[in-house]
Amino acid sequence: MKTVEIKVTTGTNKILQKAVDDCYQAGGGTVKISAGTFHMFDSLHLRSNVNIIGTKGKTIFKKCRSFSSKLSADIGYGHYDVSVEKPHLFKPGMGIYIRDANGMGFYGTVATITWKDKDSLGISRMLNHDYARIRNAMVSTIFPVISGYYASNLVIENITIDGNGRENDFIDGCRGGGIFLLQCHGIKLKGVTEKNYNGDGISFQQCTKLMIEECEVLNNYGSGLHPGSGSAGVIMRNCKIRGNGKDGVFYCLRVTYTLLEDCEISENGNDGISIGARDTDHIIRSNFITKNCRYGIYFRKADRVMGGHRNLIDSNIIVNNCQKEGKAEVFIEDTTEDIWFKKNKIQGGKNLQFGIIAGKSCKRICLGKDNEFINLKHNVSPDIVFSYSLPRKISVGPEYLNNKSVRHLNIELQ
Fold first, then answer.
1. What pLDDT digit, counting tens, does each position of 305-343 carry?
2. For the chain, which terminus, N or C, has the lower number of CB atoms within 10 Å?
3. Secondary structure element (H or E) that encloses residue 18, with its range
4. Homologous superfamily of 2-63+143-398 in CATH?
């Protein structure tokens, strides 16, 4: 396995990418990066079996300022080029984001410019949508600072990411984030500080067996952590998720069998933890959830099929949330089933009335007698009969991940 050391104190993404690609071509290895600031004009693209190790608090990847142009021609799904009104702003090697009013989320495209010819720019990935001038189609130099597509078996450690949010346009978490992973497996993030990104902090979609440990996700303009799109078996442990503009942790669609443990989730602009849309079979344990603008934990509204069922809420401290709105530390919307509360300390602030509110159509919301409620007019809402007997066995969390639980990703676990 090859080791490459980067000892310069300043540079761009190009020197980083060359080192990663050299290790990958050699069959894998480790890139060690000394203290320094690296200006990112494109993502650092991850490669399987190549570790990236920085110097704690001193190896900084800083996102460059973004700029934008409207399209000069409509462009179509599956093509590998775009046409822009302001071609002088762009050059090969830059990362870009393409979207219009109908083509956002997963319909947006993030790619690298590969060639330039007058107003045409070649791109490294095909377009995910038809983009039209009538729908305000735009091309902007926004992208994840670290990006992984189809990568596996690697470590990112002791890197600081500065998203430079004030000088960048927003990108949503389906295609962007300070760190963005799509269909990645067996990746570990440790000791990473990710901050100030105009979007989500760390977003991972269709991923399995990730470990996010001892990381700080701070002051991003979107959510902090964004587990999404069928991801499964992820461990998020001992992290600080603080001061983000939206949710601290936003479980998106069909995320299953994860563990969120020993994290501080505080002062975020919406909910501390938001969960729903077939997000099932999780353990949320031993977290400190405080001073978020709305609920500490929110189970989103859905029909019975799409609810965030079968989740264990264990040994958390949930205190002084609803700083701007909300009536309870925990809010469970109608039709949610099988939520188990065990050994939690739930404390209200600012004359909050309820510890837990659950909708009338919820089923099997179970409160162990070892939960503690403090400084609340009512421990729970009166609209639902809570059970006070937890099941003997609760088969949730990464330990129970299996091939059946990931077949929607068309993979088999290794």
1. 999 999 999 999 999 999 999 999 999 999 999 999 999
2. C
3. helix 13-25
4. Single-stranded right-handed beta-helix, Pectin lyase-like (2.160.20.10)
